[in-house]
Amino acid sequence: MHVVITGASRGVGAALKATYEAAGHTVTGTSRSGAGGLIPVEMTDPDSIRGLSAAIGDAPVDLLICNAGLYLDKGETSLDTGYPAAMWTEQLAVNVTAPFLCVQALLPNLRAAGGKVAILSSQMGSSTLAKGNALIYRASKAAALNLGLNLATALKGDGIAVGIYHPGWVQTDMGGGSASITPQESATGLAARFAALGPDTTGVFETWDGRAHAI
Ligand SMILES: NC(=O)c1ccc[n+]([C@@H]2O[C@H](COP(=O)([O-])OP(=O)(O)OC[C@H]3O[C@@H](n4cnc5c(N)ncnc54)[C@H](OP(=O)(O)O)[C@@H]3O)[C@@H](O)[C@H]2O)c1
């Protein structure tokens, strides 16, 4: 299986890369710098995302994992002074526009394999959990969830299943040291969910440990 993972340099993405490689699969990973054999892709730059497509060429892609994400407004609560426009622009670009552009760029490769797409959203993107903080991150992950649901419908005719996932609260740079699970626990659970994804389950929004999450 050929797996493409965005944001494979650290955190959940790096653990997913290690998990698939240990199982004998071929992994193409991205990061901003491209260090360590990854493809350099800056997710705010559409030209850079097209470079990912050029690097992969016409190789079939069995699974595209849109994992790269940004959480700049962590701890932000101030409606009066917080949430500057530039922060909205950057975070929406990485968390929403980039997953769409990655799917678009790799559509021929996904079609060639009858592949699947996994989008890393978050429970914070659920409209049932509108807690009134981190407004940009929440809006971006709600949009990523909505994007995944629409792609599931739009790609049904191509036989490409799309799932949307909450990876848990994970001990990464983003999740912090007091988060509840390790990147490896998250990756192992997510890989099982991705394996279960198919035409009959396309459009799922699930947690890393297999529970359906409210949209
Ligand atoms: N950790 C959690 O508790 C948690 C909870 C819910 C959802 N999530 C979601 O799960 C996914 C993985 O989270 P994580 O905790 O593993 O995050 P992380 O440790 O902060 O890693 C983020 C990854 O995204 C890449 N990235 C960020 N901005 C980028 C940009 N502008 N261009 C290209 N790549 C960029 C980073 O690459 P560089 O190394 O090059 O910067 C890195 O590989 C994210 O989508 C996140 O929103 C995480």
Q: Calculate the mean pLDDT score and round it.
A: 97
User: How do the strands of the widest beta sheet line up side by side?
Assistant: 3-2-1-4-5-6-7
Percent of residues in helices comes to 25-40%
Bound molecules: NADP nicotinamide-adenine-dinucleotide phosphate
What labels describe this entry?
215 residues, alpha/beta, seven-stranded parallel sheet, 6 helices, binds NADP nicotinamide-adenine-dinucleotide phosphate
How would you briefly describe this protein structure?
The protein is an alpha/beta fold and 215 residues long. The protein is built from six helices and seven strands, in the order βαββαβααβαβαβ. The protein has a seven-stranded parallel sheet, with helices on both faces.
Structure in words:
- Helix 1 crosses helix 6, helix 2 runs parallel beside helix 3 and helix 3 packs parallel to helix 5.
- With 215 residues, the protein is α/β, with parallel strands linked by helices.
- The protein is globular and about 50 Å long.
- It has a 7-stranded parallel β-sheet, sandwiched between helices.
- The structure holds NADP nicotinamide-adenine-dinucleotide phosphate.
- NADP nicotinamide-adenine-dinucleotide phosphate binds next to helix 1.
Topology, element by element:
Layout: E1 2-5, H1 11-22, E2 26-31, E3 39-40, H2 46-56, E4 63-66, H3 85-105, H4 107-113, E5 116-120, H5 135-154, E6 161-166, H6 183-196, E7 205-207
Parallel strand pairs: 1-2, 1-4, 2-3, 4-5, 5-6, 6-7
Helix pairs in contact: 1-6, 2-3, 3-5
This protein binds NADP nicotinamide-adenine-dinucleotide phosphate.
